[in-house]
Amino acid sequence: MVHQDQGQLVQEVAAGGLPAPPSRYVLREEARPKGDVIAPAPDDDLSFPTVDLQRLSDPDDVEELAKLRSALESWGLFAVTGHGVPESLMDGILDATREFFHLPAEEKLKHANRTEETGEFQPEGYGVDRVDTDEQVLDWCDRLYLTVEPESERQPRFWPPSSVSTLLHAYAPCSARVARLVLRGMARVLGFREEFFLGRVGENGGTYARFTYYPPCPRPDLVYGLKPHTDNSVVTVLLLDRDVAGLQVLLKKEEEEEEGKKRQRWVDVPVLRRGELLVVVGDEMEIMSNAAFRAPTHRVVTSGDRERMSLVMFYQPEPHRELKPAEELVDETRPAMYREIKAKTFGDGFWDAFALGERTLDFLKVKIDKQDDEVARGA
Ligand SMILES: O=C(O)CCC(=O)C(=O)O
Ligand SMILES: [Fe+2]
Question: Fe2OG dioxygenase domain: which residues (predicted)?
Answer without folding.
Answer: 205-317
